[in-house]
Amino acid sequence: MDARGNLSFLQEGNQVPFAVRRVYWIYDVPGGEVRGSHAFRNTEEIVLALSGSFEVVLHDGEAERVYPLKRSYVGLYVPQMLWRTLRDFSTNSVALILASTPYDENDYVRDFDEFHQLRNGR
C-alpha cells in the first residue's frame, strides 16, 4: 500500500490468461436489477469490482456458486460456457469486464434450457 493511494494492474499472460479483445463496464445499476443471465460459447472473461460490490453467480449446468466481488484488486476468471449473472450491486458500483473476444451476438447463449442442453451434450 502507498500513502499516496493504491495502484492495481493486470497484464496479459500474468493475471489475465488470454489476449484482451474487448473491455466493457457496467454501472448505475438500479437496486434489485441483475445483469448478464447468459453464457458465452467461446468468450472467457475477467470480472472486477472497480468500485462498490456485487455478486457473480456462475452455473455450470448442474450447480451454481456465488462469488462476492468487493475489492478492486480481486478479479474473477469466468471460462466459456458458464451461465453468469451479476446481482446485488451496491450504490455507485462499477463492474469492469475484460473479454477474450470482440462482441459477437452469436457467441451468446441467452436461454438457460439451451445452455443446459449444450453443457450436457444433448
UniProtKB/TrEMBL annotation:
Domain (Sugar 3,4-ketoisomerase QdtA cupin) ranges: 2-119
One Pfam family recorded for the sequence: FdtA
Domain of life of the source: Bacteria
Full protein name: WxcM-like domain-containing protein
Organism: Limnoglobus roseus
